[in-house]
Specification:
Elements (H helix, E strand, L loop, with lengths): L8 E3 L5 E5 L2 E6 L2 E5 L9 E4 L5 E7 L2 E8 L5 E6 L2 H17 L10 E9 L3 E8 L5 E8 L6 H16 L8 E6 L3 E6 L5 E2 H8 L4 H20 L12 E3 L5 E3 L29 H4 L7 H16 L9 H10 L10 H10 L13 H5 L9 H5 L22 H4 L10 H4 L25
Antiparallel strand pairs: 1-2, 2-3, 3-4, 4-5, 6-7, 7-8, 9-10, 10-11, 11-13, 12-13, 14-15, 15-16
Adenine binds next to strand 9.
């Protein structure tokens, strides 16, 4: 069961569990347990690295029944009081998992068996891998540092890692490990064996409205979660929307997200990037934009799901831009009224009147979603109408043969390229595990 706000604490914008106790706020972030004097306290009053060697035990104290004692060798014990046995167990589990994850040994590609290539981008490839000790499978994205020579691309990559590290959401791909060599950066992400929504649309032409509705609702929750973390996704398109083994959505590729909207622009940001057919007019016009651009892309995606192609399309990129800015939107006759109205309101060229500008609930309350229980959506309680055909968890049948027939190997990078890389640029990338196992957002 998922819960975002609990009696004991709440999940912060950054996705960390925070617990309040005796006017102090406790938080696990990375492998650090910190406590703050108050909720907004910038500087933690105390930091406790959850590393090997610490012991976590359940105990009782005069003043509390459910206490967690963390003992660091040669140091004092640290106590957290929980308000129930369940909560006590959750903390013990979270701390133990964190400690295990940060055993000290760095993870490297050696720890994974490479199974298959499943995708390729400009800067590297995505492989299906299995971690040798746990037998868990991941989608390993590798990026050649040399290909990221451009400063902006490096920032994108680091922002991807930073964003992925912080998110934990049922419909967003999560990051489990990240590490690097002199040549490459690696990220072990959730594997979504159902393949891309792009493949579904190309194979099936149009998707039935009920199917599109659940996809759109799940995507909306994922985008809203990113927005609440001050992240504009900006790159919503069917290639980045994947299906997991049950047929639920997993959004991937945060390579273009930009965190911390530049406050100088009054909460708006001015960098141009994205894919032409899904770009909002304000991005094309190079005017400051905000998270409302994602609701435009959602409108384009809904249109493409229901009709089989995006509303503003041409082989000529310049013409696509022209169409997005000026061409009258035509919605085919067979699209039902509620869907048509939602598409028209999301594809409002004026971001100040576009649906969603008054908040996320404005879109949730649109008649297209009448009868939808959003809690059930979040909890994955609606069974998807399409369940991907998957033999086992390592099945790559839903990915393009163009990739899966490729020889799987960690390709060598030319020495001439390695020499050019300034390694300092990638400081801080190595091994970030996630805080798992606490009753925050289990999916
Ligand atoms: N997880 C992250 N990226 C992925 C991809 N391209 N394919 C499958 N699962 C993924």
């Amino acid at each position: 069961m998922s819960k975002q706000i609990t009696k004991q604490g709440y999940l912060s914008k950054q996705g960390h569990l925070i617990k309040k106790w005796k006017k102090r706020w406790f938080m696990i972030s990375g492998n650090i347990l910190s406590y703050y004097k108050n909720e907004n306290g910038k500087l933690p009053k105390g930091l406790l690295p959850l590393t090997e060697g610490i012991t976590v035990v359940k105990t009782k104290k005069r003043w509390k029944k459910w206490v967690i004692a963390i003992t660091i060798p040669q140091k004092n014990s640290f106590y957290i009081a929980a308000s129930s046995e369940k909560e006590q167990n959750e903390w013990v589990e979270a701390i133990t998992n964190t400690t295990k994850r940060f055993k000290g040994d760095k993870v490297s590609l050696e720890d994974f068996k490479l199974l298959s290539v499943i995708g390729r981008g400009t800067y590297g490839k995505v492989m299906l891998v299995k971690k040798k000790d746990t037998k868990k499978v991941y989608a390993m994205k590798s990026l050649q540092k040399g290909m990221l020579a451009d400063h902006k691309q490096i920032l994108h990559t680091l922002s991807e890692r930073d964003v992925l590290m912080r998110v934990r959401h049922p419909f967003l791909v999560g990051l489990h490990y990240s590490f690097q060599t002199t040549e490459k950066l690696y990220m072990a992400l959730d594997y979504a064996p159902g393949g891309e929504l792009f493949t579904r649309i190309s194979e099936e032409g149009k998707l039935p409205q009920d199917r599109a509705k659940l996809y759109i609702a799940e995507i909306m929750l994922a985008l809203d979660h990113l927005h609440k973390m001050d992240v504009v996704y900006r790159d919503l398109k069917p290639e980045n929307v994947l299906l997991d083994q049950e047929g639920h959505i997993k959004i991937t590729d945060f390579g273009l997200v930009k965190t911390d909207l530049n406050k100088k622009f009054g909460g708006k940001t001015g960098t141009f990037c994205g894919t032409p057919e899904y770009l909002a007019p304000e991005i094309i016009l190079d005017t400051p934009y905000n998270e409302i651009v994602d609701w435009w892309s959602l409108g384009i995606l809904l249109y493409e799901m229901l009709t089989g192609s995006p509303p503003f399309y041409s082989d000529d990129v310049e013409e696509v831009f022209e169409f997005i800015i000026r061409k009258k939107l035509t919605v085919p006759f067979y699209i039902e009224d509620e869907a048509r109205d939602l598409i028209e309101k999301l594809l409002d060229r004026n971001p100040l009147t576009r649906l969603g500008v008054k908040g996320f609930t404005q879109i949730q309350n649109h008649p297209f979603f009448n009868g939808i229980d959003w809690k059930k959506v979040y909890n994955r309680e609606y069974t998807p109408l399409f369940i991907p055909k998957i033999e086992d968890i390592t099945d790559v049948g839903n990915f393009d043969e163009e990739f899966t027939e490729e020889k799987v190997e960690d390709s060598l990078v030319k020495v001439s390229v390695i020499g050019k890389v300034n390694q300092d640029t990638f400081d801080g990338f190595t091994f970030i595990g996630r805080v798992d196992g606490i009753g925050v957002m289990n999916n």
